[in-house]
TrEMBL record:
Organism phylogeny: Eukaryota, Fungi, Dikarya, Ascomycota, Pezizomycotina
Key words of the record: ATP-binding, Metal-binding, Nucleotide-binding, Ubl conjugation pathway, Zinc
CDD domains: Uba2_SUMO (cd01489)
Species for this entry: Pseudovirgaria hyperparasitica
UniProt-listed GO biological process terms: protein sumoylation
One of the record's GO cellular component terms: SUMO activating enzyme complex
Official protein name in the record: Ubiquitin-activating enzyme E1-like
Length: 610
């Protein structure tokens, strides 16, 4: 009996043949991706391309079953291909060890697929694939999981909601002053250790850390200035790396001198307990007999003395790595050596865990185990293989509906996996909702520009296409994800080449009509690279574009029931339902709330996580 006989029987010959001929793209070969690839290959999808930028880590092996111990440090995409090929040698698998945002994966490339599957773990890459599929007019099946929660959504341009139709919760950040001056929860000390202390000693600068919110800096200008001086002093300590005095200097600076300064701000401690500085020599005396192997006890909360031992030991390890790096990069001043925090890098995790707990002790905050700190610093909740397997199965069932002849879009559903205590089953589903007419990504006009990047300038787009071909008047702006590059008061970029403005074939440009009367909806431009004859324009508009008027002012979302309904008939999903990946991060003690974003409630109160 042929290996595909039963599959053919259960799917029916016509669907089976279409699956056999289908060319699909799977973005992400992690927890969901491994399960999904197995399903695609065993069902007989004719050609599957895999894109993943990462290499295999020890911590992936418990659930990413296409990978084995001997694959650690190898490309996920390539090993996934190798392992899954053995399940069904009749299908073709193509692996790309790359970032899906790389320019080689342009709109034309997306057009070469019948279907696209997202098996990703982050908002940024998902949004990018969403935009690419809209520009290429390809159906995207997005699968996501967070712990026990999961979702599968079918996104078809103009028919169903896209990934951006519901605004997503911005990642949680903390005001700088909370982190640096008045921490009150373990997470504040963990962010301090990871995004301030570690980066100032071994990395670049805290200013770039996404967890730190600088929006209130102006209001606290004098305190921020003092904090800045503290950071500079800490950076100087970097010069002591490798010297006998290094560890004590770091310790004295951040756990003694800086704390003394904070204590002197009496107003800050009127309603809370003032921090207590630590003494290096006293702790040295108290820690004789504690072995550095205590760092391996990752489930228990270390004592102050144990944290001190791990702090010193991890600083030794990191200092040595930093020195080695410096030696190997000697003479190459353009790349100063830096170390970066990685939750799977024991040396960096030990340092962050020990430093966070020392700071927690100073501020009378509960300490956390290294295991808990790994979850919180890595902003992760445990991934659950079963959830991944369920969504990877459901997403293929949705793909069947789309591949039928004729396609059964009306039967396609958004499916959610929940473990809410009052929910009757494991999954819930709803029909696909129509696009949000105010969505900045899909309720817009789209156009493609054929572009010769060797000579195209911004002027060729602004003057040659937008004004000459699409009748934009003077009042409009053009922006990339990085910001505005053209508007009536910003004309300096017109003579610049697109490459100088970091615009490539993977870039989307947004044209916003700023006219007072009847402005048109936003226009999203994507690029097709082509070498064009010198006597022709460097940017061409191959097809006519219709740009409708912008809809009237957006109604205020109703906050009464936590929904943000816009279409009168059906309630739109709220952030928790629609974006489980980002709304639903939980710790072991996490508790899901039924509406609104998800909170972690730990002993120190509730905090929102992205
Ligand atoms: N921009 C991107 N381009 C290509 N692949 C990506 C991109 N962003 C994320 N990925 C991949 O998506 C996959 C998501 O899988 P998963 O959620 O299981 O994460 P993981 O990194 O394997 O696990 P964990 O984060 O729990 O350690 C990862 O393999 C990751 O490398
Ligand atoms: Zn949309």
């Amino acid at each position: 009996m042929g290996r595909d006989k039963l599959t053919r029987q259960s799917l029916g010959g016509s669907l089976y043949n279409r699956i056999n001929e289908a060319k699909v793209l799977m973005v992400g070969a992690g927890g969901i991706g491994c399960e999904l690839l197995k399903n695609l290959v065993l069902t007989g999808f004719g050609e599957t391309h895999i894109v993943d930028l990462d290499t295999i880590d020890l911590s992936n092996l418990n659930r990413q079953f296409l990978f084995r111990h001997e694959h650690i440090k190898k490309s996920k995409a390539l090993v996934a291909k190798e392992s899954a090929s053995r399940f069904n040698p009749a299908v073709k698998i193509v692996a790309h060890h790359a970032n899906i945002k790389d320019p080689q994966f342009d709109v034309e490339w997306f057009k070469s697929f019948d279907l696209v599957f997202n098996a990703l773990d982050n908002l940024e890459a998902r949004r990018h694939v969403n935009r690419m599929c809209l520009a290429a007019d390809r159906i995207l099946l997005d699968a996501g999981t967070t712990g026990w929660q999961g979702s599968v959504t079918v996104i078809k341009k103009g028919v169903s909601q896209c990934y951006d139709c519901n605004p997503k919760e911005a990642p949680k950040s903390f005001p700088v002053c909370t982190i640096r001056t008045t921490p009150s929860q373990p997470i504040h000390c963990i962010i301090w250790a990871k995004s301030y202390l570690f980066t100032e000693i071994f990395g670049t600068s805290e200013d770039d850390a996404p967890e730190l919110d600088h929006s209130e800096d102006q209001e606290n200008a004098s305190e921020i200035e003092k904090l800045r001086k503290e950071s500079q002093a800490l950076k100087k300590i970097r010069e002591l790396i490798g010297k006998e005095t290094f560890k004590k200097s770091v310790f004295d600076k951040v756990f003694h001198e800086d704390i003394d300064r904070l204590r002197s701000m009496e107003d800050a401690w009127k309603t809370r307990k003032a921090p207590e500085p630590l003494q290096y020599d006293k702790l040295v005396a108290e820690t004789t007999g504690i072995a550095s192997s205590v760092a391996q006890s990752d489930q228990k909360e270390w004592t102050l003395q144990e944290s001190f031992v791990v702090f010193n030991d991890s600083l030794d390890r990191l200092g040595k790595r930093f020195q080695d790096l410096k030696e190997t990069s000697n003479g190459n001043s353009s790349t100063p050596p830096i170390l970066t925090f990685d939750k799977d890098d024991e040396d960096t995790l030990d340092f962050v865990a020990a430093s966070a707990n020392l700071r927690s002790h100073i501020f009378s905050i509960d300490s956390k185990s290294k295991f808990d700190i790994k979850q919180m610093a890595g902003n992760i909740i445990p991934a659950i293989a079963t959830t991944n397997a369920i969504v990877a199965g459901i997403v293929v069932l949705e793909a069947f509906k789309i591949l039928r002849d004729p396609p059964e879009f009306d039967k396609a559903r958004s499916v959610f996996l929940t473990r809410l205590s009052n929910s009757p089953g494991v999954t819930a589903s709803e029909s696909l909702l129509p696009p949000n007419p105010y969505c900045p990504t899909c309720s817009v006009a789209q156009a493609q520009l054929v572009t010769d990047f060797t000579r195209a300038k911004l002027k060729d787009i602004v003057e040659g296409v937008l004004k000459a071909k699409l009748n934009y008047s003077e009042d409009f702006s053009v922006s990339t994800e990085a910001g505005v590059i053209f508007e009536p008061d910003l004309e300096d970029n017109l003579e610049k080449k697109l490459s100088e403005l970091s615009i490539g074939k993977e870039t989307f440009l947004t044209v916003r009509d700023e006219a007072d009367d009847c402005p048109r909806t936003n226009l999203i431009l994507s690029m097709i690279e082509k070498s064009l004859p010198a006597d022709e324009g460097a940017v061409q508009l191959p097809e006519a574009v219709v740009i409708p008027q912008r809809p009237q002012a957006k109604p205020e979302p109703s906050m009464s029931n936590g929904s943000n309904a816009t279409n009168g008939t059906k309630r739109k999903r709220d952030a928790t339902e629609a974006d489980l990946e980002d709304a639903g991060k939980m710790s072991k003690k996490g508790k899901v709330q039924e509406s609104g974003p998800i909170t972690i409630e730990d002993d120190d109160g509730a905090i929102l996580l992205d």
